[in-house]
Every structure is written in structure tokens, then in C-alpha cells.
Specification:
Largest sheet: 7 strands, mixed
Order of helices and strands: EHHHHHHEEEEEE
Helix content: 25-40%
Strand content: 35-45%
Number of helices: 6
Radius of gyration: 20 Å
Distance between the termini: 32 Å
Low-confidence stretches: 1-20
Mean pLDDT: 81
Length: 202
């Protein structure tokens, strides 16, 4: 069966992903970024991004003693913190907002409908998140740095519990996939994550 692709709406320390730990899983855990290890070419490209160059120029004019490498590291640290976006709402929102969730249901029986249990075929969700880091250069002058996070999530053996047609609980499932993190045209990280179980704690 061909994978189905949905696109969810844009939303605004490494840990092991434990079984039944879906509610504690966020994108920082999933993608394990280490943005402080950018290559020289990545740093050069990042520094040339228009808004980053604007910040650097401002600091050179108003705070010349600041070390740009330290400032860049702080920006990247704050980017990592922006990744603390829970995975569960991304999945739930993606399923809930697409009426064609029934198209990937493995069961059309009245039994499943009456008991609000919906097993799904293997499918793929594509999701884009775009949180913003806002830096204040001076009073009334802010610079917004939007981080672009794109996920491609492959899901199998998913069983959902519905309530009035909305996803209430993820009963089971296996999740794996990949994601990349970009600022502007600069690829900051690309990560693949191995399969782990999706199970809400009861």
C-alpha cells in the first residue's frame, strides 16, 4: 500500500525514548540536535543569513567587545530550547484535522465504530513546525528568527481510540522517521529516529 502524506498546520540533553513515554517525548528528545557542532561552512552560511548578519552588525556597532562566537552559540542554544514541542499533540492534531483518517482505517466494521476503536494502515505524516526566537536589540527594536522544523513520520500498527470522532487516546503504534532543522537556507541538523512504541499511559 502506498503511504499517504498529510501536512499538519504550522505551530508555533538527550533522553532515551522509553516505551509508554509518548507524553514525555518532544522534538528535542526525538531529533537529539547538537547545534553547537556546526561545521565551518554551516557557521559561515548561518552568519550570512540576513537577520543574523543584522544582529552581528548591531553588536559590532554597539557592543564591540562581544565575542560573536559566544553570541552565535547562545542563539543556537536557544534554538535547541525551541524544540521542546511535544510530539503527541502534533500526531493528534494531524489525525484530527484530516477527515480522510477513515480512508486509512483497516476496519470499516460497525463494531469498530460503535466501540470507538480505529486501527490504521501504515501511513506517513509530514509536519512542519516554525517556532520563533525573538531577540531584542534595543527598546522597541526586535529581530525575529523563525526556526523551520520539518518532520516525516512513518507510522504502523496504530490503533486509536476516538471520542465523538476525535482522537482521544493512542492505544498502540510504532513511530519512526526523520526530521531536519533549518534557519533560512542553512541546514542546522538532519536526524533520523528509529522505531519506538506509541502508547498513551492510561
Amino acid at each position: 500500500m502506498n503511504a499517504l502524506y498529510f501536512c499538519s498546520p504550522i505551530l508555533r540533553e538527550d533522553k532515551v525514548i522509553k516505551p509508554n513515554g509518548l507524553k514525555q517525548t518532544d522534538l528535542k528528545t526525538l531529533l537529539r540536535p547538537n547545534l553547537h557542532q556546526l561545521s565551518d561552512s554551516q557557521q559561515t552560511q548561518f552568519d550570512a543569513e540576513p537577520k543574523v548578519a543584522q544582529i552581528r552588525h548591531y553588536l559590532q556597532q554597539h557592543a564591540p567587545k562581544n565575542n560573536w562566537n559566544v553570541v552565535r552559540t547562545e542563539i543556537l542554544t536557544q534554538f535547541e530550547n525551541l524544540l521542546e514541542i511535544p510530539l503527541r499533540p502534533i500526531l493528534i492534531r494531524s489525525w484530527d484535522q484530516h477527515q480522510n483518517i477513515r480512508q486509512i482505517s483497516l476496519s470499516k466494521s460497525r463494531y469498530c465504530s460503535e466501540n470507538n476503536v480505529l486501527p490504521l494502515a501504515t501511513h506517513t505524516l509530514c509536519s512542519q513546525q516554525q517556532p520563533n526566537l525573538v531577540m531584542q536589540l534595543e527598546r522597541g527594536k526586535n529581530v525575529s528568527l523563525p526556526l523551520n522544523i520539518v518532520l516525516e513520520i512513518s507510522l504502523s500498527n496504530v490503533i486509536l481510540k476516538l471520542n465523538q470522532g476525535k482522537v482521544e487516546r493512542i492505544v498502540s503504534g510504532i513511530c519512526q522517521g526523520s526530521g531536519h532543522i533549518k534557519y533560512g537556507d542553512t541546514l542546522l541538523a538532519h536526524r533520523e529516529f528509529m522505531g519506538f512504541r506509541l502508547t498513551d499511559r492510561t
